[in-house]
Specification:
Layout: E1 11-16, E2 22-28, E3 33-47, E4 50-64, E5 66-72, E6 77-82, E7 86-91, E8 94-95, E9 100-101
Antiparallel strand pairs: 1-2, 2-3, 3-4, 5-6, 6-7, 7-8, 7-9
Amino acid sequence: MLKKNTSAADKVFMSTDFVGRQFLCFLDKESKTLTCIRIDGIKDYKDNDGHNSALTFGSSNILKGVSDATPCPDLGMILAMGAVDSLCLYSGTTKVGLNCKCH
């Protein structure tokens, strides 16, 4: 059974991969996980109060062993620090770079 995490994320950011897919990412430093939820689109609609927008979400993936992460928007990647002081590059949730050891 999966443990339900009820704590707030330590860091939240949006990222875009190589092919333009957008992700909403949540970092939990305690469990060393980066959860990335794909944003499928934005739907505009009108209600009684005026014009509104709603996000539609797709699949979610959990990257394990991530102690910190930051988006690199110009590269279409996420730079992630592993639990053992290594750096790795992701495009969305796909690992595109080998682990580099930090000294």
